[in-house]
Design goal:
InterPro entries: Isochorismatase-like_dom, Isochorismatase-like_hydrls, Isochorismatase-like_sf. Keywords: Hydrolase. It comes from Roseateles paludis. There is one protein chain. With 225 residues, the chain is α/β, with parallel strands linked by helices. Helices cover 33% and strands 21% of the residues. The protein is built from nine helices and ten strands. It has helices at residues 31-34, 39-42, 48-51, 54-66, 87-90, 144-150, 163-176, 193-208, 216-223; strands at residues 5-7, 15-17, 22-27, 70-76, 102-103, 106-107, 129-133, 155-161, 180-189, 212-214. The protein has a six-stranded parallel beta sheet, with helices on both faces. The protein has a two-stranded antiparallel ribbon with strand order 1-2. Helix 7 (163-176) packs parallel to helix 8. The protein starts with a strand and ends with a helix. The structure holds dicarbonimidic diamide (C5J). Dicarbonimidic diamide (C5J) is lined by residues 28, 33, 76, 161-162, 165-166.
Amino acid sequence: MNKQLTVPTAQPFAYSFNPAHTALVVIDMQRDFVEPGGFGASLGNDVTRLQAIIPAVRAMLDAWRAVGGTVLHTREAHAPDLSDCPPAKRLRGKPSMRIGDAGPMGRILIAGEPGAEIVPELAPLPGELVVDKPGKGMFYGTPVDALLRERGITHLLFMGVTTEVCVQTSMREANDRGYECLIVEDGTESYFPSYKVATLSMLTAQGAIVGWSATTAEIQQALQG
Ligand code: C5J
């Protein structure tokens, strides 16, 4: 679909985008963060909060695929030799549960391990972009900027987990690079409800200082004209 659309009820004011120049970005919907018995759950987090957004993310993906929009999936995943995981990252958190250690679903956050895969309900389709990222943000140490620019992408719709860590970092990095960003309110979640609320508020404050927010229903309504 190549035409200018508007979400009039987006926060903090109307958001305009052309699907031909917009990518739907799904951040880190990986088994280790989302599924019971994974890394996130073993750290004591309530993963049912994250699991609950899968239907909304899937519905948005279906609507986006139907208009032929670009889709980018990211995974927080490191090389098996950990050459892209600095001690400053690896040595944080629980000493018994570090990146690269054996976890409930294979080595934690290592590319190719079962836990690092995207949940089956949201599995990428052939032709969609899938990028492993060593940082919280999707631009650090990845070809994401080049991949988006070579497709003429200027606008990004963000979904995924967790709102205040990898989604927020990626959206801030994108905003600094000149992309017009929107976060999909019911397509993102945190283990900590108050962090999600605070993040949505921070991102859209001061006249969309980082970007806009809207619900899947509002975006789907725009897509349906
Ligand atoms: C993500 C994390 N994906 N919370 N990672 O947000 O460590």
